[in-house]
């Protein structure tokens, strides 16, 4: 299986969650072994998507260069890039955040589908887990375990009548991702949005790009896209956060109440445990497991 990039350049535009103004985004092909690279045209800097460049994980995953320039909220775009099996891509932005679009990765999936993919000369490599890698914080946990197929199991518990306890298990293929995960939106609580606005953040946040709840109920009149949309979005986030590993993984991801922070710690834990994985070229059999519906 060869590495993939885009067949052609594609342009888009969307509102930034924090700044609240339109941001231009272009996706362009890149050559083998380049990885996912962000370019900020407003400050003329390139930032590679890798765990060493992560600067913040409190509300979103934020990467940056060593001059203090950042790109925020990369996880939904990276999630779509992972699902499409794209190894090398240049993402050009004219601001410090990826547009929030509708709060899911559906728009990015559409852009990637439009741009289409092409094979490159170098082979694709994949992490095969030999041993479990786990990170815990209080009662929260994320882990990757050896598995014959890529799977995700996520559960969450929020003391809110619209969420409560939710669990979702997901067998990864591109098609399953598009159908089961890509449309799941991010979510937030009205009280937090008020607090963020006071700090001049979340200025672009609205019912158009998030599920918003007051103390009792969901405020979006259209309701939910999936019954357990909240936990599905957590899987969308996890796939995006783990894209920073640089290669696909054939493993089972498990999480209870995982966060951007724990996902980031998990990527570092894996990369610091070379005895727990092998990085191998995808052969025909593994390719079938991984990309069976392509
Ligand atoms: Zn998210």
What does this structure look like?
The protein has 294 residues and is α+β, with helices and mostly antiparallel strands. The chain folds into two domains: 2-122, 2-Layer Sandwich (Ribosomal Protein S5, domain 2); 126-290, lpxc deacetylase, domain 2 (lpxc deacetylase, domain 1, 2-Layer Sandwich), CATH 3.30.1700.10. It has helices at 75-83, 106-115, 174-181, 190-198, 229-242, 260-271, 284-290, and strands at 2-6, 10-15, 22-29, 36-40, 45-48, 54-56, 62-64, 70-71, 89-93, 117-123, 125-129, 133-137, 140-146, 151-158, 164-171, 187-189, 211-213, 249-256, 277-281. The strands form five sheets. Strands 11, 12, 13, 14, 15, 18 and 19 form a seven-stranded mixed β-sheet that branches. The chain has a five-stranded mixed β-sheet with strand order 2-3-9-4-5, with helices on one face. Strands 6-7-8 form a three-stranded antiparallel β-sheet, with no helix packed on it. Helix 1 (75-83) packs across helix 5 and helix 5 packs parallel to helix 6 (260-271). The longest helix is centred in the C-terminal third of the chain and has 14 residues, at 229-242. It is globular, with a radius of gyration of 18 Å. The structure holds zinc ion. The site of zinc ion (ZN) has 5 residues, from helix 1 and helix 5.
